[in-house]
Write a structure and sequence with these properties.
It is built from 18 helices and 36 strands. The protein is α+β, with helices and mostly antiparallel strands and 689 residues long. The strands form nine sheets. It has a seven-stranded mixed sheet, with helices on both faces. The chain has a six-stranded antiparallel sheet with strand order 18-17-23-14-15-22. Strands 28, 33, 34, 35 and 36 form a five-stranded antiparallel sheet that branches. Strand 8 (173-176) and strand 9 (181-185) form a beta hairpin. Helix 7 (201-216) packs across helix 8 (220-227). The relative contact order is 0.08.
Length: 689
């Protein structure tokens, strides 16, 4: 059978919030598959999946990591994902390319904002999500409370498949509702079948009844028989349950303790018995010729199509492009077409990512998660084919929410900063780097302070570049509020030719955003035409240095209407200086004010936090423009807020909303800074300069 390899393949992402035990679950699955002979532990820094120095230091996943195990002749590709909002962008963009997701929830703290985001991503992409309630052996662990809290975060129905045996330190196993069997585990993680304990039989019967009802609702014929009191066979329940899970109709709940190996063996069985293989996942949507839609069949006989969903940059082996084979197959070498770039790419190796290692493989097939090194033009999100010009669209990364100015610790590293960070951006598409033309600063933007710090650590480790960070400068500007007609006169006598330039200019304010206008109204040759551009240049150069605090002066008009010259001593330089003097004289009479950039801000938050958010915006001198309903019970608050008040907004927003709020912003307009604040800025500027 042509797709036999794909049928014996499962692609599973392990997701969840920080400290929920994602990596521990991955390590338990790896250990129990006998791929390694020692269980990796985060505390000891010896896990297969968290191998980067930054991950070992922080004891948390920062990058998506890949490996494979074999369980009962079925190959399982595992993806271990970050659970911190700082690094969640890669989780969000990788989940859609795996066919099911184990959503790990810690039984003490319960679900959090990351849990909610993951359930949204899986629901949006039609990916089955299996909830694994972990750490049930911990003090204050509460299985039932965790389930209730999880129900409030998702529209998907929650179906309990396992009930725990014992609580906290006495937790030792579970009852499987599907098979009506109970298992307890010894200290080595070995399971023993037992009778269902008497003290939880009532809970088991109730869960069984609820389970049967949930499954029966998926099939009208079974539902009718169930309502008539007929017994539904175990095989019928399992078959219907699997079909419901394949269609992501509900989220089943399993339980255990990964570090004690309780439930991880059952989880592996559950993956191969109930989660979809690449064929069962179905066809993939693709586009060709101006967004005409078609479907790609996950069949080896079809032409090869793959999509790059992750990139790893290694200073030694270069760029590793990780992709999923959507249809067709690919061998260990050859030439492929990057459709997005319209470039042919040659490759000589086909690799499989295995933690920090890469293993050579001979071929791939629909559903394979593989990698190719050193593709010249290929980036995350690109579609690869043999010759078929179709594109599979990749999800967009999350936008940066915090920015810092960076400067090299060593002189001469400016160019190295850009080239090195560009490589890191290929690896982490939620980073942004730009040069601010107004403040002359290099700005690094990311998803949070920890994200920025980690990026700087990688920069040093991978490329030997060290940088300092500081809050970015605000690109303040100055402008005038009154008209003033002034003279700019420059006269200097030296031993030879002197210098003479004389001009009269009327300065007046323009509407905000109109910039600078220069008008020549000289008549009768009062100033020769050859010197008029020099007057304009003098005004422009002076305006760039400002008047109050050294910020550029904008939104004004300069009308040159009179002046005089000397046939011998006048020159372009003399009139340029005269224009500069006129500008300075005018600003002394024109009521100069400071302007600040005002941002258009969109804040996304659950409805219950909108009052706190709007109150906080008012304290930041913000002006709320309106509010509208968003997706998944969120509210979108739109406001104008000064840029200076938004530099460190994301930590405060996350604190106000329990991590569930986010925002995006863009420049909108410039507006006058309140007098008291302006005086503080001017004084600070004078002190620093």
């Amino acid at each position: 059978m042509s797709n036999n390899q794909s049928e014996l393949l499962r692609n599973v992402s392990i997701t969840g919030g920080s400290s929920s035990g994602k990596t521990s679950i991955a390590e338990a699955l790896i250990f129990q598959s006998k791929k390694v002979n020692r269980l990796g532990k985060i505390e000891e820094g010896n896990t297969v999946m968290d191998f980067q120095p930054e991950e070992i230091k922080r004891k948390q996943s920062i990058n998506c990591a890949f490996t494979q195990i074999t369980h009962k002749k079925t190959k399982i590709n595992l993806l271990d994902t970050p659970g911190d909002m700082n690094f969640f962008s890669s989780t969000k963009t990788c989940i859609p390319f795996f066919d099911s997701s184990i959503v790990t929830i810690e039984a003490v703290g319960g679900p959090n904002s990351i849990t909610e985001e993951i359930l949204k991503v899986t629901a949006k992409n039609g990916i089955p999500s299996i909830i694994f309630i972990n750490k049930l052996d911990r003090e204050r662990a509460d299985f039932y409370s965790t389930i209730e809290k999880t129900k409030s975060l998702t529209k998907n129905k929650i179906v309990v498949v396992q009930l725990p045996i014992g609580k906290e330190a006495e937790f030792k196993g579970f009852v499987d509702i599907l098979s009506n069997e109970a298992f307890v585990y010894d200290d080595d993680g070995k399971a023993t079948k037992i009778d269902i304990p008497e003290d939880i039989k009532q809970e088991v019967d109730s869960a069984k009844e609820e389970f049967i009802e949930s499954v029966a609702e998926l099939d009208d014929a079974i539902l009718e028989r169930y309502l008539e009191g007929e017994t539904i066979s175990q095989d019928e329940l399992k078959t219907t349950f699997k079909q419901g899970l394949l269609k992501a109709k509900f989220s089943p709940v399993l339980c255990g303790s990964a570090t004690k190996l309780i439930g991880s063996d059952y989880l592996a069985d559950f993956i191969i018995n109930y989660t979809p293989n690449p064929i069962e996942r179905g066809n993939w949507k693709a586009f060709y010729e101006n967004d005409n839609e078609l479907e790609l069949k996950p069949d080896e006989k079809e032409p090869f199509v793959g999509i790059v969903f992750n990139t790893i940059i290694d200073p030694f082996s270069g760029r590793l492009s990780i992709f999923r084979v959507i249809s067709g197959s690919l061998g260990k070498d050859g030439t492929i077409l990057n459709v997005n770039k319209d470039k042919q790419e040659k490759f000589t190796q086909l690799l499989e990512m295995d933690g920090k290692k890469q293993n050579n493989i001979e071929n791939s097939y629909p559903g394979s998660i593989v990698a190719i090194s050193k593709l010249k033009d290929t980036e995350t999100g690109d579609t690869l084919t043999v010759d078929k010009k179709v594109i599979v669209k990749a999800p967009s990364p999350l936008k940066p929410v915090i920015s810092f100015a960076i400067t090299p610790k060593s002189k001469g590293d400016e160019d190295k900063i850009f080239s090195s960070l560009k490589k890191l951006i290929e690896e982490d598409t939620s980073i942004m780097l730009k040069r601010d033309s107004e403040t002359k600063e290099t700005i690094l933007s990311g998803r949070g302070m920890v994200h920025i710090e980690t990026t700087i650590e990688k920069l040093k480790r991978k490329f030997s570049v060290e940088v300092d960070i500081s809050p970015p400068k605000i690109p303040y500007k100055e402008t005038i509020k009154k008209k003033a007609r002034v003279q700019g006169r420059h006269k200097k006598q030296t031993g030879g030719h002197g210098q003479f330039g004389d001009c009269w200019i009327e300065f007046s304010p323009l509407k905000r955003g109109e910039g600078f206008k220069f008008v020549d109204k000289i008549v009768g040759g009062a100033i020769p035409k050859t010197y008029i551009p020099a007057v304009e240049k003098g005004v422009i150069e002076a305006s760039e240095r400002g008047f109050l605090a050294g910020y550029p002066c904008v939104d004004f008009q300069a009308v040159l209407d009179d002046g005089s010259y000397h046939p011998v001593d006048s020159s372009e330089l003399s009139f340029k200086i005269a224009g500069t003097l006129a500008f300075k004289n005018a600003l002394a009479q024109s009521e100069v004010v400071l302007l600040e950039p005002i941002m258009k801000v969109k804040i996304y938050s659950p409805d219950s936090f909108t009052g706190d958010i709007m109150g906080d915006l008012n304290s930041r001198r913000g002006r709320v423009l309106g509010m509208e309903a968003g997706e998944d019970k969120t509210q979108i608050i739109q406001a104008n807020v000064p840029m200076a008040e938004m530099l460190r907004y994301i930590p405060d927003l996350r604190s106000m909303t329990g991590g569930r709020g986010t925002f995006e912003m863009e420049f909108d307009f410039y507006d006058e800074v309140p007098l008291e604040i302006a005086q503080t800025i001017i004084e600070k500027n004078k002190t620093e300069n």
